[in-house]
Amino acid sequence: MMDTVAASLPVPATREHSLPLLITPDGDTGDKPGSLTAWVGKEAARLRQLRLQHGALLFRGFGFEALQDFQTFVSAFTSLQTYQGGASRRTKVEGLVYTSTDMAAHYEISQHHESAYTPAMPAIIGFLCGLPSETGGETPLADARRVTARLPEELKARFEEKGLLYLNNLPNHFGFGKTWQAQFESGDRDEVEAKLRENGYEWEWKADGSLRTVLRCAALLPHPETGRKLWINQADHWHPSGLSNGTRAKLAEVLAEEDFPMNVTYGDGSVIAESDLELVRGIVREETTQFTWQKGDVLICDNFLVSHGRRSFTGERKVYVALG
What we know:
The chain has 324 residues and is of the alpha+beta class. The chain is 27% helix and 25% strand. The protein is built from ten helices and 20 strands. The chain has helices at residues 33-42, 44-54, 67-75, 144-150, 153-162, 180-183, 189-198, 235-238, 245-254, 274-286; strands spanning 6-8, 21-23, 56-59, 92-94, 97-99, 109-112, 124-131, 135-136, 141-143, 164-170, 202-205, 211-217, 220-222, 229-231, 262-266, 288-289, 298-302, 306-310, 313-314, 318-323. The strands form five sheets. An eight-stranded mixed β-sheet has the order 1-2-3-17-7-20-5-4. A four-stranded antiparallel β-sheet has the order 6-18-9-16. A four-stranded antiparallel β-sheet has the order 11-12-10-15, with helices on one face. A hairpin with a 2-residue loop joins β4 and β5. α1 runs parallel beside α3 (67-75). It is globular, with a radius of gyration of 20 Å. The model is unreliable at 1-15 (pLDDT under 50). One of its GO terms (molecular function) is 2-oxoglutarate-dependent dioxygenase activity. Its cofactor is Fe(2+). Keywords: Antibiotic biosynthesis, Dioxygenase, Oxidoreductase.
């Protein structure tokens, strides 16, 4: 039974539920990826209930190593998709499995809901720890329900009314930020334009071959299964105030802020107050919890219920992701 294999990780006593919920082997699950995947198929309804309750499930002790086993396992929870249109630096490794991020080890990646700036936001994210770092490297988690409940009603109403514009400046082959060829996994302009048109983007090709895209998105989204409206956006992540002071200053030496690799405004083009975004960041920080990765861990996250980030680290770290 599920209760015999589910155990909560240590979390603050004030939490109503653990984040993530830890699931370890027993006689029903076995201790191999194949037996666990078969068990997940039989226990789909119960696991859905636990995912909606906790937001994230951590499977530990099942010996995950092969990326194909990981992809098959995540496919038991969702239909997998590519990362085309995603702004983070990632490498496709095998099938529909990518590196979680190619950002350098010393960078902290702030909390975010994966691809909330696109119409193809995945509902489920799977992470595999192939090799934990020597220090740091955690994937912190924050419950969007708790964050949404704590945000001021006036702020939520204003963002919901105005919506957001995500502005993305993508260089041609090299430059600041991710290239358009990498972002859309294609070097063919016609193919890229077809993808942009299909997904509702506005775009402009610059004289130097770079691409500027603009996409209008909501600031609060309903959960696809429960209908509960949640604060799900990357305004605090895309805004220049989300950069370190040093990075922002260096970019400002050579670029106007409207030409930064990423930026965000209200849906009417007006500026978002940095004080509002700092308030959001503060609440998210207070709601963030984390665990220490172990080799072979697989984390299944509900991307609407839980945001994630990455701590800086030392040593080698291998964490992979599959989206669906």
